[in-house]
Amino acid sequence: MKNRVVVTGMGVCAPNGLGLQEFTKSLQEGKSGIRFHQELEDLKFSCQIAGKPNISQYHINKYFSPLQQRGLNASGIVYGVIAGMDAWKHAGLAIASKETPDWDSGIIFGTGILGVDKFRESIHLIDEGNTRRLGSTSVMQTMASGISAYLGGILGCGNQVTTNSSACTTGTEGILMAYERILAGKAKRILTGSCSDSGPYVWGGFDAMRILPSAYNQAPENASRPMSASAAGFVPGSGAGALVLESLESALERGAHIYGEVLGGAVNSGGQRGEGTMTAPNSEAVQRCIVAAVHNAKIQKGEIDVINGHLTATGKDAVEIQNWSAALGCSGTQFPYVNSFKGLMGHCLAAAGSLECVAALLQFKKGQVFGNINCEDIHPQILEVVDATKIPRATMAHRPEIIAKASFGFGDVNACVIFKAYKNE
């Protein structure tokens, strides 16, 4: 038991749902959280749609004290605190006393870029010679580790408290970092996850690259089209996902609910060599990462029955499916069921991996494989590899045994984690 790691709590702050109940329902029903944003039109963006959590003042008041709210202007921190606190609560864990930290619990919570709006606000004040008006929280809101620092202070974690950052691979990589720390006996439990800021100052660079779909401003829910022949680019998104990883021994001692087991995984990089670039993955590296994850998890390739891919709704989706096929040595009807949740929430950048891992694990709980939306016209190169029945359009009844989830990020970096349904043994 000391060498096994399980997931005992999860939380989400997503474009398609706040909290597990709303998030699960949207996944089951194929309800998109992608919306038109007037601000993007006013700023003359080509793509004027995005996935953004719907946060009200009620939520701010629920998760932040009046003192914490003073000068708070970092959406990623808001999303991360909401998801992280929910995951901790759902795991049945208490907040440490005011006097003593919880030495057995840590935090590995990643981000890509944090506090962009706070940076902008601070720059204006500094340029105007008003540094005294910056407030005491400007540093905490703009440092990358601000999210782990906020959560660490709220929960009182005394083990490792840190932030990782690996572009779109961040959340999945963080799960593996937490898994390895618990496996090594250095912590009993780790709150891991990732978050991403919202807004034009985050999404503008992608709009400038012309890799976002600009033809769907009047039909935002149809814009993100993973595995589709008509995919026109990824829809930017934001939010946060969080998971509590814990040693099986600790979970059983507490009588905790277990969402699934982390069997292992792998991370690597294509080195931006060969076909790999800053923005495109090296296929050999992707395949090596998947194969290494299977080996590390001590399973056979054929045991994987569901894949949750990175699958961003670009022309690279077909290449990703080809890489899965080559790595697992399967095709046609022997290929696992495969889905992408980016049709429902967009590509949430650094938050993508953690949000999608939460969604993948919920399939164990529900005994379902969540459907893919907007892929009525599956890409013909994908159909050369995978039988169409393995890409469910709607949520279907199937009790997964082993799920492989992968993320691939800018910088030619890769991560793949293997989850297993937990059964009392």
TrEMBL record:
GO molecular function term, any single one: acyltransferase activity
> Can you say where in the cell this protein is located?
Cytoplasm
Where in this chain does the record put each Ketosynthase family 3 (KS3) domain?
Answer: 2-421
Q: Which InterPro entries match?
A: Beta-ketoacyl_synthase (IPR000794), Ketoacyl_synth_C (IPR014031), Ketoacyl_synth_N (IPR014030), PKS_Beta-ketoAc_synthase_dom (IPR020841), Thiolase-like (IPR016039)
Q: Which reaction does it catalyse?
A: a fatty acyl-[ACP] + malonyl-[ACP] + H(+) = a 3-oxoacyl-[ACP] + holo-[ACP] + CO2; (3Z)-decenoyl-[ACP] + malonyl-[ACP] + H(+) = 3-oxo-(5Z)-dodecenoyl-[ACP] + holo-[ACP] + CO2
Keyword annotations from UniProtKB, A to Z = Acyltransferase, Cytoplasm, Transferase
Question: PROSITE patterns of this UniProt entry?
Answer: KS3_2 (PS52004)
Stated EC number for the protein is 2.3.1.41
- The principal localisation class reads cytoplasm
The UniProt similarity line reads: Belongs to the thiolase-like superfamily. Beta-ketoacyl-ACP synthases family.
PANTHER family attached to this UniProt entry: 3-OXOACYL-[ACYL-CARRIER-PROTEIN] SYNTHASE 1, POLYKETIDE SYNTHASE-RELATED
Complex and partners: Homodimer.
* Protein name per its UniProtKB record: 3-oxoacyl-[acyl-carrier-protein] synthase 1
Q: Which organism is this entry from?
A: Sediminicola arcticus
